[in-house]
Design a protein that fits this description.
By secondary structure, the protein is α+β, with helices and mostly antiparallel strands. Helix content is 42%, strand content 20%. The strands form two sheets. The protein has a five-stranded antiparallel sheet with strand order 1-2-9-4-7.
């Protein structure tokens, strides 16, 4: 009998303060920088309490953070790597919704805010590492500390602005979409090495059309 292959998941590693391993120190430093970017008023003691509820995960290529039908009950902060939000459209075609790289906030938006089953899959396009915070703990800390509530609000604002910028690309020509991608997200076509298949799906064009446009731009 055929057995469905179990999807790869992330590997949880210790995340303790004071840190004892090099990766922990790097994770703390990166996370402090990012959280204070969203909420500059966060105090050290508040950050340490936030960290006490966080978990550190490493992901192999293709490992899943949130699968179809699962509730996204954590917010993820990327430390390295490239992640994607992926859907299957009603016509059965694959669709890469967006890509998240170093220092990004990662959630399945509707699932996270409404705590309902996800219509998309979050997975790693290459080896990645994230620190995650459960939604219930984020709410508890937001009720307790105004600076954490500000963090929650600014993360929401960040996602809304990104979504709005992506929506602006809908009415563009294929060439205009690629120009916008190069201008606003050049790392996706360079150091992150997102595949043509994934980029073409996101931009709403065939892989062959994208390859032709990339050649025109010396890509």
């Amino acid at each position: 009998m055929f057995m469905k292959k179990k999807p790869k998941r992330g590997k949880e590693l210790p995340f303790e303060f004071p840190y004892k391993e090099g990766y922990q120190e790097a994770a703390y430093d990166a996370l402090v920088k990012r959280l204070r970017y969203f909420s500059p008023e966060l105090k050290d003691e508040e950050l340490h309490e936030v960290f006490s509820y966080c978990s550190y995960f490493e992901y192999e290529k293709d490992a899943i953070l949130v699968d179809f039908g699962e509730v996204c009950d954590r917010v993820y902060f990327t430390l390295k790597g490239t992640l994607t939000a992926y859907k299957v459209k009603a016509n059965g075609k694959d669709h890469y919704c967006w890509f998240m790289t170093k220092e990004d906030v990662v959630i399945s938006v509707e699932s996270f805010y409404l705590q309902i089953p996800s219509k998309e899959q979050l997975f790693a396009l290459k080896e990645s590492a994230c620190v995650s915070l459960p939604a219930r703990d984020l709410k508890m800390l937001s009720d307790k500390y105004p600076a954490v509530k500000e963090l929650d609000l600014q993360c929401t604002r960040y996602y809304y602005l990104l979504s709005n910028r992506r929506n602006e690309m809908i009415g563009m020509t294929a060439r205009e979409k690629f120009e916008t991608l190069l201008r606003d997200y050049p790392h996706l076509t360079k150091e992150e090495n997102v595949t043509n298949t994934a980029l073409a799906s996101f931009l709403g064009m065939t892989r062959e059309h994208l390859s032709k446009i990339r050649k025109e731009f010396g890509q």
